[in-house]
Specification:
The protein is an all-alpha fold. The protein is 43% helix and 0% strand. It contains four helices and no strands. The chain is elongated, with a radius of gyration of 29 Å. The model has no long low-confidence stretch (mean pLDDT 74).
Length: 124
């Protein structure tokens, strides 16, 4: 009976090692601003000022958006005129450029070489 108990205990101990989840990599968690910040270590909580006491950095007109001046000019132009479309296209190009700097596409998701024949549909 003692031998069976020892074998059972050894078997359970071996299985318990398989059931333990591996340590997760520490990554920032999205925080909505309510409650305690999950990304901040508990021992450093008193070193930082509270959210309400922090000041937002002041931005100049150029930092707040390169399209701000263009949008002001766009409002003064006659809608859908040639000049209006030129300014509109500049605004859209700047928005696309800003999005391109923020957008990250997985290299495996982008097809590296074009297909040999003209096809329509998904790349997968």
């Amino acid at each position: 009976m003692m031998r069976l108990g020892f074998v059972l205990l050894t078997f359970c101990a071996a299985l318990m090692g398989c059931a333990v989840a591996p340590a997760q990599e520490r990554r920032p968690i999205a925080w909505d601003g309510l409650g305690q910040d999950p990304n901040r270590a508990p021992n450093r909580a008193s070193n930082r000022p509270s959210v309400s006491k922090r000041r937002a950095p002041t931005h100049t007109a150029a930092e707040s958006g390169p399209n701000q001046e263009r949008e002001r000019v766009l409002g003064t132009l006659r809608p859908y005129s040639d000049a209006w479309w030129a300014v509109h296209d500049e605004i859209e190009a700047e928005n696309d450029r800003q999005l391109g700097t923020k957008l990250v596409i997985c290299p495996r998701c982008v097809q590296s070489s074009p297909p040999s024949e003209d096809v329509t549909g998904s790349i997968r």
